[in-house]
């Protein structure tokens, strides 16, 4: 992982650890991290180091219910910038949107915000650069924090509409988690928490737009400094991870996501000797191939039309070949191949 893919450690950890009765020096030694980390948090952590920090925290606490104990220690008066920004919001929907933008100032993650047709809100954390399974303590703490935030800000005993986790709590702790969330967590592909439409729009008693107007410029400045540490190609790839599930992969969509013009994006990639079409094309082709693999596995169970299945398999093979051309030759050759495969006369297609 490149050195610049690190995330600041918020100073708020020091009083929080003291409240939990955990020695920071012992914790950091167990995690294999510099003992001066919390004194000089700008050094930052990679995602792998962040996960080690949490696993060491779990070990030092010796408490399987640490995520619940931890979030209960967070108070409305806690001055952790992204959390403060969320508390200044009008409601949970706006708080989720602000956390989606600013959460990576204190953790290697973003937050996907989805509002259903019925107005129900679903918040799904995504951990950036995660190369391994997200530790349960990290996942559970994040979901518990989001519910704690809603309760702190509304001063109401808000219950989750639903909670999903790839890894469920151990049976001995299952009742405690169900009691905290107001619903038993269910197994799912991703960690997420849902709120009813009423709770999503329930007014925050901590809302303070005047304070937010004063505070926002500093948050944006810090976010800009963090983003500046990542090269443009890495930022494009991160943007694509969020855009591709919605069917967007164009240059305009990526530029808008990164809050810059198409021309500026192209210029920055040229400085890094990257081509926007190559960066976007490679990841878009990859995503299409994965999507077709998933569809093929599901629909093969439902359909018996072999000619249709052969057509899907041929389409998958086409995308795989295009991916190889991107990886080993050039984007132009991949595009030429895909264009040729889409024409009626495929007899002249060459992949050499």
UniProtKB/TrEMBL annotation:
Domain of life: Bacteria
GO molecular function list: DNA-binding transcription factor activity; transcription cis-regulatory region binding
Residues annotated as signal peptide: none
Record bears the keyword Iron: no
Example of a GO cellular component annotation carried by this entry: cytosol
One Pfam family from the record: Arabinose_bd
Name of the featured protein: AraC family transcriptional regulator
Organism: Pseudoxanthomonas winnipegensis
